[in-house]
Amino acid sequence: MVNKREIAVLVVDDDRFVREMISEILIDQGVSVFQAENGRNALVIFSKHEKIDIIVTDIHMPELDGLGLVDAIRETDKDTPIIILTVNSDIETAVEAIRKGADDYILKGSAIGDTLPLSVAKVLEIYDLKIQNRELLQDLSAKNAELEKLAFLDGLTGIFNRRYYDLTLITKWGSAIREKSPISMIITDVDYFKQLNDVLGHHYGDLCLKRIAKTLYSLLIQSNAILVRYGGDEFIAILQGKAPEATREIAEKMRTLIEQEKIVDPETGQIKQFTMSFGVYGLVPDANSDPEILFENADKALYEAKKQGRNRVNVG
């Protein structure tokens, strides 16, 4: 048997005697066989039967010869092994078939009963290795993509981190310039977060940060905004296409939602409410402006919100 798994071979030859002889050799090896009398007929059979593993084809046939069959198969299928049947006088043509995408050629003759099973086993082994390598590469690519994604996520909250912010701000800023559209930023942090940590512990503080991330993300995703944990208890939202006033309304919704949150410490059962302050700034940028102006002015607006009593939104 040429292979432990079930194999189906399409035998293509306009000589019925040759087709039957090749088929018998393969059937004796435990292989299922389909037959076609020319390349055109072979294409019809191949398109209907997804389980065909190998094509064994003669070179000289009416309507569509072996070279034409190789060309037609390789237009849509780069992998299915193709073995060319040839005679000594057609070696150059067989080599040309290899260049076009065939995988092997064997000579018709008395030794074909030995050479054909060996060729089938060889091309199948190469095919299986090719598929295995492709799957390994796809798996590696998927894992690399996942690692790259994780590199942009905050480990505690699961939202984007400072690294992602640095890249995205530049991209969004460039898009706003090209589209001549507004871009706004919201900077927010927890009021009296240090005292909250000192009194209730960092475990409780982490619970608050996770809840903040979940709550704000659920709201901001509706506005196609980017939410990042900038550091500590500080969060930033980038809103492309939003003017400052519209952004202020979103920030006010954020503030209200946070004010309504009640965090229960699973260890002590203690319930705590907290508030956040918000700084907003936006503009329509031009080629001469710097994206850092967003952060600087939104941060100043946040500072003013703190000065004015906290738990409020201030627009710079």
Please give a structural write-up:
Strands 2-1-3-4-5 form a five-stranded parallel beta sheet, sandwiched between helices. It has a five-stranded mixed beta sheet with strand order 7-8-6-11-12, sandwiched between helices. Helix content is 51%, strand content 19%. α2 packs parallel to α3, α3 packs parallel to α4 and α7 crosses α8. The mean pLDDT is 91. The longest helix has 40 residues. It is elongated. It is of the alpha/beta class. β9 and β10 form a beta hairpin. The protein contains ten helices and twelve strands. The chain has two domains: 135 residues, Response regulator (Rossmann fold, 3-Layer(aba) Sandwich); 154 residues, Reverse transcriptase/Diguanylate cyclase domain (Alpha-Beta Plaits), CATH 3.30.70.270.
CATH architectural group of the largest domain: 2-Layer Sandwich
Write the CATH fold name of the largest domain: Alpha-Beta Plaits
CATH superfamily placement of the largest domain: Reverse transcriptase/Diguanylate cyclase domain
Text of the CATH class of the largest domain: Alpha Beta
User: Segments where pLDDT lies below 50 for 5+ residues?
Assistant: none
* Total strand segments: 12
Helix content: 40-55%
Strand order of the largest sheet: 2-1-3-4-5
Profile the largest sheet: 5 strands, parallel
The helix tally amounts to 10
